[in-house]
Specification:
alpha+beta
Length: 159
Amino acid sequence: MSDTGVDLQQMLIYLTNTGAPVGSLGGRRKIVGFVETDPRNQDDLRRVIDECGSALVSLNLRANIAPEWEITPDVWEFDPSSPRVGRHCVNFAKYDKDGFYAESWGKNSYLVTPACIADALDESYGVISGAWIEATGRTPLGMTTQELEVQMQGIKRVC
C-alpha cells in the first residue's frame, strides 16, 4: 500500500460541514451526520448497517488479504502468520451468517470473515445520508429527522 490515507473522523466532519463535490456544476452534498461504533463489537457493526444502510470501516490488513501486485482474494480470512501491511478503508453494505461484505478496489463482494473483523477492524462509522431520509423523513429503521438531529448534537458541537 502506497498512500498515507486519511483520518476518517476528520473526513466525516468535513463531509458533515462542507460536503463532497457532486456533478460537473460544482455542487456539494453534505452528509446528515455520522456515528462511531465500537470496532470490537460486531453486533454494533450490524446495527449501524441496518440503521444507516452501510458502515465505513478501517481495516488493518495483513499481506494475505492485500498482497502487493497480486489479486486480492474473494474471502478475507484471518491469518496470524501473515504480516500487517497497513490500513484500508472499505464500505460494508451487507452481512450474513458468514461475515460482512466489503466494497473495495472496484468490487462489491469481498467476504470479510468474523475472525478477520476481530483481528483487523480498528475504526467503524455509520454515515447518515440525506438520501436515506428524504423520501420518508425517517431512517431505514424508523428514526425521525428530529430524533436524528438530537442524537447528532454532540458531534456537531465538536465539528
